[in-house]
Specification:
mainly alpha; single chain; about 95% helix; about 70 residues
């Protein structure tokens, strides 16, 4: 069951990296000083990636917990 824990930890790290990437992308957008319509259009592309990254992190953490319980 150790393999489930390590795979879950790797998936969690990938999800966390994607969350950080989306955070940095939003900060870069804010610095550009775009008008409201352009900002909404560009944020509409980032939000689904952020939600996917959160789900990926959650899946990885669930795998870690399941691996610990089964050990």
């Amino acid at each position: 069951m150790d393999i489930i824990i390590w795979i879950g930890a790797a998936i969690t790290l990938v999800g966390f990296a994607a969350i950080l990437w989306s955070l940095l992308a939003v900060l870069r957008l804010r610095r550009q000083g775009l008008d409201d319509a352009q900002m909404r259009t560009r944020l509409a592309r980032i939000v689904p990636l952020n939600i996917g990254a959160l789900m990926l992190s959650m899946l990885g953490l669930m795998m870690v917990v399941v691996g610990i319980i089964l050990s």
